[in-house]
Amino acid sequence: MGRIATLGALVIAALAAGLAAVWVGVDGWGAGLNGELALLRLPRVLGALVAGAALGAAGAAQQGLFRNPLADPGLTGVFGGALLGVTALVALGAGAAWERPWLLPVAAAGGALAATLALVAFARGRSPSGLLLAGLGINALAGAATLALTAWADESRSTLAMVQAGSWLGHMTLELVAWPTLAAGAAVLGLWLMARRLDALGLGETGAWLAGVDPGATGRRAALMTSVAAGAATCLCGQMAFAGLLAPHLARALAGPRHAWSIPASAAVGALIVLAADTAGRVGLLGKTLPASALVALVGAPAFLWLARRHV
Amino acid sequence: MSDPLLELRGATVAFGDREVLRGRDFRLEAGERVALLGPNGSGKTTLLRVLSGELRSGELRVAGRLVGEWTAAELAGRRAMLEQQPSCAWDLTVGELVALGGTGGREILARLGIAHLESGKVSGLSGGERRVAHLARCLAQLGEPAGKILLLDEPDAGLDEARLGLAAAAIRRFALEGGAVVVATHGRLAEGATRALAP
Questions:
Q1: Taking Cα atoms as reference points, which of B129, B164, B175, B160 lies closest to residue B34?
Q2: Is the dihedral of CA A205, A194, B91, B81 positive or negative?
Q3: CATH code of the domain covering residue B48
């Protein structure tokens, strides 16, 4: 009962915050009560909520899959892969991405999946630091490939720069939001349906198998779902580290460690984090407008260091 | 004659140049309680791992069917194994841990004498209590004992007299109700076994 109330409160809080954010502008509330402006802000707010939910759920699943409290799609190279996928599409396919908006999340999920598979191959069963080291390598490789592609694809450089800098949310349209939202929704639901299997993975690979859960098949399915979620998030907010790391920790503190609860709670907390960061950055809370990813990292990076001190 | 619950033929396992099992055969019938005795390193854990289907060697049949023809989920409905160092990475309560196995946890915990720990965290338990909690998870995984196989790797380590008595009673009852138990032990749980052997 307590958990249902907690989860309900988190979801309501995220939706209410979204409704409120639509009305807030650079000049605060006063002149912001403007229906036309609100409608313009709607895709951005929706994008932040969906990206945050996808990141939160993907982070919770990754921490479960790797039995590692430091896993985060932004740190393990999965985002790097997603960004590479988007870059490859924009650089090689030129206009195709804008004519068929569903291509973006597909390309991002494809890149994320490649990175996730590399991660599974190199880091499954390793210590928290081993996972992060593998992520470091994958991120570096994906980053270098992204840079090379960007340099090569002259025309689309400005678009790519926006995606890479994480200021992409400011350019959302309802059309751009729609496909990633569908993908993120499917991925979060898919991850939630795996909750019992992720719970069993806590017994270790052998323990899970003895309890009737095939760790290999579970890992592959979770990798696919987290890749789709991370790909969708990349299409909405560009690169963003730490949201997927922080959300599960807060969610578990509120809703407990079982994935049936921690995945949806983490999605709600992630939505709140990214929306809060994007809104604060948009209205210039720190004096200047800032991309959401910078604000999330300002809070997330110190928290990461604190967690690393405890777990590595 | 019906198939035995478990039948192993010709299992050979070596770690490096040390051969732990050589051409091992084993047969387990319903109602049996088999005690595996022997010093550390004599192969008790290895034999249990082979019998569980985790370590593949020789030909293992579960209820007449080759182990490779079972899915992990099907097999888990038939046999449970308590590992020597059972652990769970999540900070679960005892009740949640047992529910990972299946339903009926409360009654099982009561039988094992740790019902009062149900809502406490597993991380707060002693080593012995933790083992009992995982034993409860294994029992919940199997449900009705008839035709089921329970493999236990030194469940008695770190258990005090009272808990040992309750664990022994639960194991006895499991076999009386038509299940079969193989337990690796250094002593106490061997008492009352229908068969005792070295791996």
A1: B175
A2: negative
A3: 3.40.50.300
> Tell me, what's the pLDDT at A98?
67
To the nearest 10 degrees (0 to 180), the angle between helices A215-237 and A174-193 is 160
Does B83 sit within 8 Å of A202, measured CB to CB?
Answer: no
> φ and ψ at B19, to 5 degrees?
-85, 120
> Which residues from B are below 8 Å from A when comparing CB atoms?
52, 54, 71-77, 80-81, 83, 86-92, 96, 100-101, 137, 141
- In whole angstroms, what is the distance from residue B154 CA to residue B138 CA? 14
CA angle B74, B4, B142 (to 5 degrees): 35
Give the C-alpha separation, B50 to B46, whole Å. Answer: 6
Please report, as a single letter, which amino acid is at residue A297. A
B1 found inside a domain: no
Domains, in order of start, for chain A? 2-299 (1.10.3470.10)
Q: What is the mean pLDDT of chain A?
A: 85
* Residue A201 scores a pLDDT above 80: yes
Q: Measured between beta carbons, which residues in chain B are less than 8 angstroms from residue A204?
A: 87, 89
Parallel, antiparallel, or unpaired for β B6-15 and B18-28? Answer: antiparallel
Pairing of strands B33-36, B18-28: unpaired
Which range (A88-102, A198-212, A248-262, B179-193) has the least confidence? Answer: A88-102
Full domain range(s) for residue B127: 6-197
Q: How far apart are CA A106 and CA A101, in angstroms?
A: 9
A-chain residues within 8 Å CB-CB of B133?
Answer: none
**pLDDT band of A203, cuts 50, 70, 90:** very high
Examine residue B107 and state whether it is found in any structural domain, yes or no. yes
* Burial state string for B108-141 with b = 16 or more CB within 10 A and e = fewer than 16: bbebbbbbebbeeebeebeebbbbbbbbbbbbbb
How many domains, chain B? 1
Over residues A104-139, the pLDDT tens digits come to 888 888 999 999 888 888 876 667 677 778 888 998
CA angle A264, A75, A143 (to 5 degrees): 130
